[in-house]
Structures are given as C-alpha cells and as structure tokens.
Amino acid sequence: MAAAPYIQSIGNCFSDAIGEGGIARADYDAALASAEKALGKLSAAHDDGSLPLLRVPARRDDFPAIEAIAAKLLDNTTDLFIFGIGGSALGAQALAQLTGWGTQAHVQKGVRIHVPDNLDATTMEVALSNADLRTTRFLVVSKSGGTVEPAIQTLAAMSAIERAGGGKYMKHHFAVLTEPAKNGKPNPMRALAEAQGFPTLEHDPGVGGRYAVLTNVGLLPARLMGLDIEAVREGAASVLAPILSGAPASEVAPAVGAAVSLALAQTKGANISVLLAYADRLERFLSWHCQLWAESLGKNGKGTTPVKALGPVDQHSQLQLWLDGPRDKLFNVFLTDTKGKGPLADAALAEGTGFAFLGGKSVGDLVDAEQRATVDTLAKNGRPVRTFHLPVLDERTLGALFMHFMLETMIAGDMLGVDPYDQPAVEEGKILARQYLARGGV
To answer: Going by fewer Cβ within 10 Å, which terminus of the chain is more open, N or C?
Structure first.
C-alpha cells in the first residue's frame, strides 16, 4: 500500500516551539495514549464488520451499478441537478470542485451541474426556469428517504416537468439513491421512486450520511463529473492501512490529529478549530469537514467548534483577530504546491512601478509566499498551527483527506466519550418544522 498523499505536520503545536500557546509534550503523550485505545476498537470493528465504513475503501463491487446509473443520467443531457442536503451533498460538492465546479475557474464541458443543497426559493426557481427540462436529469440523494428538503425539491422538479408536458417521460428524468425499507419503517422517497419507475441505488444503511462520501453517495456524483472513483478509494485505503496493520498511534496520522486537537482544547482552551485552505478547490471540502466534526462531536457539552476559512481572502479579513484576539484557536492550514503556476506578471510592465517586485512572478508565486507567511506568522505569535502539505490535489489526495478526517472524528469521539454517529439534537428542529408546515406556518 502506497503512503498517504499528504504530509501532516504538528511541530508548531508544542510549547517548546511556539511558547505558552502550545501544548506540553506530556499532555500530548497522554492524549495519544487515549487515542491508542480507540485504534484497537476501530481495527476490531473492521475485522468483525460492525462498522461498514471501514470496509468501503477496499470495495469495487458497487462500481458497475454506479456506472449504469451515471450512463443513464448523462444520456442526451444538458443539465443535471443533484438534490440532497448535508452529508448527501457536501462530499459530492467537495469532489466536484476537483473539476473546478463551484469556483471562478470552472468550465464544465457538455453538462451543467447544479447542486442546490441550501434550500432557497429564489435559487430553485431561477435554476429550474433556466434549464431545458426536456434534457434535464435529477439525482435525488436521501439516506432515510424522509428528509424534507430534497423531497420538496424532487416534487417541485416533477411538477415543473408535468407542467411542461413531459409527465409521460418522468421516469427518464430521475434516479434516486436511498436506503432500502427496513424493520417495517417506511421510506417515502423509495416509495415515490418505485411508484414512478425511477431507477434506484442502495444507500448503505450502516453508513451515516455525513460519513458516506466514499460510498455511492459521493462516488456517483464524482463519476458524473468524470472523476476517477477508484483513485478516491485508493487514497482512503492508504490512510486506513496503518490502523489495520496495527501501527502505534504515533504513526497513524488521524490519531495524531485527534490527540493534538483535544489536548489543545483541554489544556489550552483552544475550543475553536480553524481550517484554512489556500485553494478554491478545497472550499467545499472545508464545509464537509465542518458538518462532520460539529455534528459528530458536539454533544453533552463537549466538542470544539470548526470554522472554515479560505486564503488569501480570509487572511485579509480575519488574520488580525487570529493574531491579536483570544487565544482559543487551533489553526489547520492546507498548503498546495502553487509556486510557478497561473498567469505571469510581465517584468517589463512592472518595472518602474511600485509593483516591480511582482515582475516575472506568477499568481501561484504570490499565493505560495502568502500561505507560508501566514503559517510562520501564526507560529511566531504563539498560535498553534497544524499543516497539511498537499503536493498534488487530485482524487487520491481528496479520498485520503476524507478518510483522515472521518477517522480523526471517530477517534476523537471515543476519546471524548461521545457517540460520533448520531445527532439527537438535530431531530427537534426537524419535528418542529413539520409541525409549522402542517399548521400553515403559524
């Protein structure tokens, strides 16, 4: 198994490197010992199959079904909508950004991809009205089949097709990814799909939505984007491998990350975790991580608050606070090899101006200098900084990062004594929303 395609560095998280803001080595060692216990549980869960997620990186048997649905959705298609929310959409969006989707640089050939995951009346109306419904397809992703946001999106899209006179072709426009009905519990989205003749894929009942990016939930959209889905899983497997081989916690990157994060929170009050990436193509990945970490660990008064930031823009808007505000943050900075890349500033045009120092430099040169300067400035000011160096940002790297942070979250949950797989507090709001809707909004 090849090594993971990223390098995690924690040197600037210790007091002997950055001063009082860092953790003592003894506190880190204690946290690492706690993480060691979690690794044994994960290895056992892999062996006995009680945590299906850990078997996903090695799977390939689900690829033919993914290919078949992808081919159907891309046949004679100009626009493709992916309906889902939270874990049903964020991972797919993170993968899609490898193609440039959702960034200023995106040029999608052939098919326009829409992922209106944050339900908004105006956005939905504009998106549907600007698409040729005759050649528009819809992928609906809902683990339980009862989530109301993708449900109303699906019904609205079906209604638009019906009004346009395409009702008799309805089954050719949709595919649904949802759980099978189980334990006598109804799955309304599956029932709708079966009644309409929509093709379906099975959402693994044993893998929660926010952990599902390595399953068909993430890989079907990735395949629709033309990405190498096998490479995604290969990257994930490279991170999982040390756990399965029995490596000590000090040699397991997610265990190291969990130990650093929780030790800083518990001994230094670093209850905010800032994730700063210097690449537009990582913006949705940061959002994916925020849901994963917050919804998995924010329980019983425990957990830390994840905050996403994008460089260089957020170094301008937030660096003042980071350097001169409360010492309550761990910084996680994702560094890409951008030096020498992008448009070049002509030296002759820059000569004689106040920007002569930029002459002959590329956009990537400036971003590289800024990302390194931000890391060094934070560390010199006693702020703990963990870095991830990403030599190449591709499917294998993103698959590895997905696996890293899912494992880090699971390990941290075990260390905190919380269940990282449920989300009981979220359900209250869902119940109230249904009640308000039934009462006409009163």
So the answer is: C
